[in-house]
Every structure is written in C-alpha cells, then in structure tokens.
Amino acid sequence: MTTTATNPTSSRTLAMNGGTPVSATPVPFMLPGLAEADIEAAVKVLKSGMLRAAKKCEELETRMGQLSGAKHAMTCANGTCALQLAYEPLLQPGDDVLVPAWSYIATVSMIVARGCNPIFVDADPKTGQIDLTDAAGRVTENTKGIAATHMYGCPVDIDGVQSLARSHGLKVIYDAAQAHLATWKGQGIGAFGDAVTYSFYATKNLPTGEGGMVTCNNDALARQIKLLRSHGETEKYLHEQVGYNYRLNDIAGALGCSRLDRLQKETDARRAAAARYGQLLANVKGITPLGVTPGAVSAYHLYTVTFDPKQFRCTRDEFCKALNAEGVPTALHYPRSLPQQPAFARFIDNQRNSFGGWPVAERLASTVFSLPMHHGLSEAHFAVMAEAIDKVAAAYRA
Ligand SMILES: Cc1ncc(COP(=O)(O)O)c(C=O)c1O
C-alpha cells in the first residue's frame, strides 16, 4: 500500500514520497566504534607478540565472572561456540530440549548440532521471551533440557525456568548473547541454571569483533568446558578427551577488557534511552515497546517494538521504509520465527500438529521492528525520532 501522505492530520509529505526528511543525517542505529583506549590496548598485545589467549583473556574471564555473579567464566571464539561448549557436557544426542521459537538461530542450531531434538516453545506476546506455560505443556518424559534466550538483553523469568526445570529434572542453559550486565532480582545472571553463554560479536553490547564466553558455578562443568575448548589437553600434547579449538585470542581479550571498563556506564545509558523511548511512544497508538519481564533489568541490546496493523493503513515494512527515509533507521529482529526457518523443517510437522504451532512467534515475525539503541543516543536524536515517528504515524493513521 502506498500513501500520498496528504492525510488531514499531517500537512507534511513523507520523505519517501518526495517530502523533506525530518533529518538528512540518519540517527546512528548502533555505535560500534572503538575508543582510543581500545586501540591502545590491542596495540599493546600486538607489540607483546603474545597473540594467543593469555593474560587479557584471563582478565576478561575474572572480571566478567565477578560482574555476572559466576564462579567460573571461560572465554571462547564466539557465542555459537559458547553454546556448543555448554550443550555438549549437559545434553546427550537424542534428548528432547525445549527451545525458544523466538530467538537467533544459534540457540537452536547448536542443539541440533549436538544431535538433540529441538522442541519449539512459543513466545510471550508481551515480552517476546519464552512462554513458560507453553513450555510446560510441551514437556514429555523425553525432555531433558531447556535452552532459554534472554531476548534483546532482557532476562526471561528465571525463577519460572528454574522451577519448571526442577519439576522435570531438566538441564538449563541460558543464552545471554545479548544480555551482558542484565540482572535478575538484583543479581547478575551468570550463575543461574547450569550454564550461561555470551557473545562478543561486533554489534553486541561488549564487542570484540568475534568472541564468546560461558559462565557457570560448577567446578566439574567448568573443567569439562575448558577441556572441550582446547582439544581436551591437560598438559602439552596430552589429550584426555576429544575437543575443539574454540579458544579466543589476546587481542580480542584486550579489546574486551578495555570496553568492559565502560560497559556499566554504557548499559546505564542504554537503560536511560529505553526510558526516553517509553515516554516518546506512550502516545503513539499502535507502536508498543516489548515489555520487560517483572524482576528483570534489561541490558537493552536492542530496542524492539510491535506494530499493530489495525492502527495503520500500511504494513510494518512500509512503516519502517517511511521512517528510514525520514532519517530513522530500523531493523528486523527477526523477520522469521525459528520454526519458519528451512533449516529446522524436519523437526516441525509433528510438533505443529501436536501443539498448535507457534502463533505468537509467527506474529512477532511480521510485527516487530527495532529502533536505534546505543549509549550515544542524545536528546537531538530523540527529537528527530519523535518527529519522524509522529509524522509517519500521522500519515498512515487508519
Ligand atoms: C541470542 C543469540 N545467541 C547466539 C548468538 C551467536 O553468537 P555469535 O555470533 O558470537 O556466534 C547470537 C549472536 O548474534 C545471539 O544473538
């Protein structure tokens, strides 16, 4: 559907229809740039010649362990490896594992890589997090674990997950790739469940380019993860078991430590930006921020809203395109639910028939979009976003 944007409530022509954009310079969607201190930290490692995982990775592990409330923290090559390192000791091939229908693919693809059967669980319509009532309805005697993602940086209902797990003897792995420094009932999230995984990918809240981590409180599990991370090696060229090379390197370790110096401040700024969005969107009928789980404080990796098609004479994608033209970039996290991914087709038919599908996750795929979120959002950026959202919403108002 197109609009000429001559809606009586808006005298302004949309930029995508030839009007003047609210801002010729787009608001940055994210701020991946390095500070001088990060570059110096990386150069110091380069000059030392010690490129493999060493002191800086160890420092990152100690500090992230402390910040997330976990006894053990193990760096690794990326967040996907982190999932693999956590899943392998905790789950067996053939296990049924409850997984979110609404997450990034890695949470589930590594369940499949482990030889387990993913049992997709629908999302909570208010928060987009795993729906624990739906999860409970999908448990059978074959269910051995639950992998829950703290979506967008917001912790799931951890008490609810732990209680479900206790009732059925399930292993619990939390995917915190998007949730560094998020908290649950005042505590860091690093020691809940059996293991917690993180990503340090270039766009994450703590970015090192590529990188990841697993945290846990269990000594034996930590040892197993360290062995798996580095070819099961206990002393030089002595391999106790088969493993991988999933180690990080010290340049990434140094970047992580340097960026960690300001992560709390940046996370606070993200939280302030989320509060500012809340005020801005309170009066925009049909654009609703996803809610935060009661008891959780989000790290706001992303700021994601839902679009109500009944309130507008356009699709979600047309609305986003119009916002983009006004100088407000948007992104889709995600355009498909995981059961809609061709990669998982062989797991789907039976489950769709047995449990009635994943209507919420599928609806989220066609209604969510993410607005700019980072620590550098200023009042000037919010002024642009407020005006652009008002302009586009007025032009398309049903
Ligand atoms: C929820 C979630 N899980 C896992 C990953 C995988 O992390 P990585 O890209 O570091 O492998 C990501 C990264 O995008 C993610 O968002």
Helix/strand class: alpha/beta
Strand order of the largest sheet: 1-9-8-5-4-2-3
Distance between the termini: 12 Å
Low-confidence stretches: 1-10
Mean pLDDT: 96
Q: If classified by CATH, what would the architecture of the largest domain be?
A: 3-Layer(aba) Sandwich
Q: Largest sheet, described in full? A: 7 strands, mixed
The sequence of SSEs as H and E is: HHEHEHEHEHEEEEEHEEHHEEEHHHEH
Secondary-structure map:
Elements: H1 36-48, H2 55-68, E1 72-76, H3 79-90, E2 96-100, H4 105-113, E3 117-121, H5 132-137, E4 143-149, H6 158-168, E5 171-175, E6 183-184, E7 187-188, E8 195-199, E9 212-216, H7 219-229, E10 233-235, E11 238-239, H8 250-260, H9 263-281, E12 287-289, E13 296-297, E14 303-307, H10 316-326, H11 348-355, H12 359-367, E15 368-371, H13 379-396
Helix pairs in contact: 1-8, 2-8, 3-4, 3-7, 10-13
The structure holds pyridoxal-5'-phosphate.
Could you give a quick summary of the protein structure above?
This protein is an alpha/beta fold. The protein has helices at 36-48, 55-68, 79-90, 105-113, 132-137, 158-168, 219-229, 250-260, 263-281, 316-326, 348-355, 359-367, 379-396; strands at 72-76, 96-100, 117-121, 143-149, 171-175, 183-184, 187-188, 195-199, 212-216, 233-235, 238-239, 287-289, 296-297, 303-307, 368-371.
